[in-house]
C-alpha cells in the first residue's frame, strides 16, 4: 500500500511538472515569436524627394468680382519633400515668378486687353513686382495626416505669412504631390485696386500646387 501511495505521488508530481513545463515552454515560444516579429518588422525611414523643375507648377487664379476671372501657371524651379509612411513631413519649394503665364481666354485684343498685357501688369509694382522679387517660396512647418493639410510659411514680395494647404495628396507610384490654398493678396502687398470704383478685384488668390518628383 505504501509503495502504491509513493508511486501515485511520484506520478502526480511528474504530471504537474510536465504540465508546468509545457505551459512555460508555450509562453517562452510565444514570447520568442513575438520578439522575432518585432525584430523582422521593417521600420519606415524618411525619404527625401527632389522636385523636378520642368514638370512642377503652381496654377493660379484671381477674379474681378462679377466680371471675369483670369488664370495661369508659374513654374516651380526647385525644392524637395521629406516623405514618411506616405505623408509629407517637411520640405520647401521655390516658384519662379518670371515664368508666369496666363491660360484663360477672358481678353479683348481690340481694346488692347491681351494675356501679355495682363502678365506685364501682374509683374509690375501694382502686383508682384517681379523685377525685385522674382521668387515665391513655401516652407512646410507641420502636417495633419488625418485632415490632409500642410501648414507652412509662404513668402511673396518679401512678406511671409503662415498658410494652410488643403486637400494634400501624394502618389508615391506616380511621384506626384498636390494641394490647394487660398491666400489674401493684400497680406503680401499685392494691393492694387482698380481705378473704377464699380470694379472690384477680389482679394483672394487661388493657388493649386502640382509637384513632380
Describe the structure.
The longest helix is centred in the first third of the chain and has 39 residues. The N terminus is likely disordered. By secondary structure, this protein is α+β, with helices and mostly antiparallel strands. The chain has an eight-stranded antiparallel barrel with strand order 2-3-4-5-6-7-8-9. The protein has two domains: 41 residues; 166 residues, Beta Barrel (Lipocalin). The chain contains two helices and nine strands.
Secondary-structure blueprint:
Elements: H1 2-40, E1 47-50, E2 57-64, E3 68-84, E4 87-102, H2 115-122, E5 135-144, E6 149-156, E7 159-171, E8 176-184, E9 204-212
Antiparallel strand pairs: 1-3, 2-3, 2-9, 3-4, 4-5, 5-6, 6-7, 7-8, 8-9
CATH architecture verdict of the largest domain:
Beta Barrel
User: What sequence of helices (H) and strands (E) makes up the elements?
Assistant: HEEEEHEEEEE
Q: Please give the largest β-sheet.
A: 8 strands, antiparallel, barrel
CATH superfamily placement of the largest domain: Lipid/polyisoprenoid-binding, YceI-like
Strand content: 35-45%
How many helices? 2
| Low-pLDDT sequence parts | 1-20
Spatial strand order of the main sheet: 2-3-4-5-6-7-8-9
Q: What number is the mean pLDDT?
A: 86
* Mass-distribution shape: elongated
Q: How many structural units, i.e. domains? A: 2
**Helical coverage, percent range:** 10-25%
> Kindly, what is the distance between the CA atoms of the first and last residues, rounded to a whole number of angstroms?
87 Å
Tell me how many strands there are.
9
Structural class: alpha+beta
Under CATH at level 1, the class of the largest domain stands as Mainly Beta
Radius of gyration: 32 Å
CATH topology of the largest domain: Lipocalin
